[in-house]
Amino acid sequence: MQPEKKSASLKEQLALITPLADDLRVKKDERLKQFADIKTQIDKITSEIAGYSNIVNAVSSLNLEDHDLSMRNLSEYQSHLRALQKEKSERIQKVVDCVNEVHSLCGVLGLDFDKTVNDVHPSLHETSLGQSTNISTSALECLDQAIFRLKTERKVRYQKLKDVSGLLFELWALMDTTREEKSKLSRITSILRLSETDVTEPGALSLEVIHQVSTEVERLNKLKAIRMKELVMKRRAELEDICNKNHIDPDPSTSADKSSAMIDSGLVDPCELLANIEAQINKAKDEALSRKDIMDRIEWWLYACEEENWLEDYNQDYRRYSGGRGAHINLKRAEQARIKVTKIPVVVNTLINKTLAWEDEKQKLFLYDGVRLVSILEDYKIVRQQKEETKKRARDQKKLQDMLLSEKGTVYGSKPSPRRSSSFKKANGYHANGNGSVTPSPRRNSIPCATPDLLTPRSNSMRQNGYFKEMRRLSTAPLNFVAMAKEDTVSFSSISGSEPESPPQC
Predict the structure, then answer these.
(1) How many domains does the chain have?
(2) What percent of the chain shows pLDDT beyond 90?
(3) From the CA atom positions of the chain, what is the Rg in Å?
């Protein structure tokens, strides 16, 4: 107000003040409206941040009388509003980022995004009319927890897929899987080339993918078990073959029946069982190598025993000196067999000494088909000694019988019977048979033979007791003078000896 106008009347002063008051009143209303708008926005943002659903009416809460409507206070309110708006913007951006991250993780894990977000807050996925996005601290905490759970699940699934894929790759290499079969799961290889945080392909770590790989691993494991079982059986057969050739008892703990039962029951890993059998094979090979020298001598001894048995049967065959095909081969074999038989005692004693030395070195018994070899050889020596004594007694008894027969022939053969001399002996060297015909008799004097003292008991016996039978046979069959010569000379040739055949060096 101008100072000179103070002297004006009240009406004049009122007329001057009224417009000013009206103007101030309008400014106050405008200022009050500004405060109300700012207060409303502040309350709304504060409610959104706090998570309240009801917004307080800012106008009714203002105290018009006591409230400071100055520009300074208005600026403070505006500054506070801008800070809240900035915080709201940051929260909204954070919510958007969290929701996008949840969406990406759900895609990688193959989870339902809508259900996952709705479990946090429905407003995060879809906002209806009148409903704003929840930017409260609790909503952000729930989002952070959801992201943490999803990341943990991603880490677990990635590790599980890595472990299962590792088994798959090992089975592929072990089973020589073709490239066509591998191509069905080539996606797994591309996923595992990335780190866990870099996997963003939708469904890369879904349960379906892990189940698919696990199913393939299970199928290959079953196929591996079948093949491993076949391999275990094959290696066990090789072990038994090595043990059988060397007359070693194989380890019964990995027998075919037990191995098959253990594999089928799952009590043992086929790889461990195979490794155990491999170790047993190496052990059997080492033992077979250490037993080789003794085993070679055992084979020679067994072969000599077979030849001894054959020689006994051969000596009992009265047709062994016949002129048939192969007779000379049997005669040569008999001579060689006699040489082998004479060397058997030396070989047996050498075997016993070498076996005892082997047992001292290895600190265990030398078993042959489960029986100690030294016991077998000692028993054989006893049986052979008894057999030799039995043969000696038989020879002595036979020799005594031959002496008695010779004495009896000397007593009763000095006066030949006239009937015998007239009916059988002729001047021309022929003998008459019963029907009056004649057949040539063997000319014993013309055949070079050994003296009667060198003849075997069997040959003397045949000449004494089988004389008349021989005469009847000669009356119907032609004579074989070559066979007779061989029969008479065999004893002499056996005694005179032949080139010896040596056993293995003792």
Answers:
(1) 3
(2) 25
(3) 60
